[in-house]
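Worked example 3 (structure in, sequence out).
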């Protein structure tokens, strides 16, 4: 019985993994074409960098891991500083899996994303509950502005010897109860999203840098 349950859970995780890739692919088709990513060294961070995600259901704070994911963090902060996330939505919620957002505006239209990110999924960080990762399409280096927060320990999103994974680049350090609140909203078919989209829109008002608490 335990083996059967484990197999079923693994199959479910892999199905959800494919769905996560699908949303990234949809964004890539809708947004402007971008060149292939070129890995570039990011300046080292001497103090932790945190950002606050201000949403219509409350706020949560993410601490970014520039040591393990320097390219992804630098790219994410570029989007933050340019105001990319202002008035975007959490467009996907799967209970006990992830919440995902940052790529669509309040009219459910994909926002053009100028920068692709080299896949840093082999950085040693794992997709544990509360960690933040970069969403992408089926191509391993197709991640841009969309991010997700793990509601559960999702080892199926980690890399293996035979495939790329989904890069973790931070973790929620404050407001996980808000993430859980978002993770429990009613979902369904909304606009271009056939399933798993909040029936009452969850708006990301903005994402901004904040000073870490002492």
């Amino acid at each position: 019985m335990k083996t059967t349950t484990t197999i079923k859970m693994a199959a479910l995780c892999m199905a959800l993994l494919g769905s996560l890739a699908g949303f990234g692919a949809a964004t890539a088709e809708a947004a402007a074409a971008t060149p292939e990513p070129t890995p570039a060294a990011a300046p080292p961070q001497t103090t932790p960098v945190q950002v606050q995600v201000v949403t219509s259901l409350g706020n949560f704070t993410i601490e970014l891991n520039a040591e393990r994911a320097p390219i992804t963090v630098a790219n994410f902060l570029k989007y933050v500083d340019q105001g990319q996330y202002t008035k975007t939505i959490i467009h996907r919620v799967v209970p006990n899996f992830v919440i995902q957002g940052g790529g669509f505006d309040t009219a459910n239209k994909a926002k053009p994303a100028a920068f692709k990110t080299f896949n840093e999924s082999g950085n040693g960080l794992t997709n544990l509950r509360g960690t933040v990762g970069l969403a992408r399409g089926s191509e391993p280096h197709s991640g841009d502005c969309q991010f997700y927060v793990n509601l559960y320990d999702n080892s199926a999103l980690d890399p293996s010897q035979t495939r790329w994974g989904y890069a973790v680049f931070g973790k929620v350090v404050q407001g996980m109860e808000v993430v859980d609140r978002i993770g429990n909203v009613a979902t369904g078919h909304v606009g271009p999203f056939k399933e798993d989209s909040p029936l009452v829109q969850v708006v990301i008002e903005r994402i901004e840098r904040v000073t870490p608490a002492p």
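Notes: Confidence is low (pLDDT under 50) at residues 1-11, 25-35. The two ends are 49 Å apart (CA to CA).
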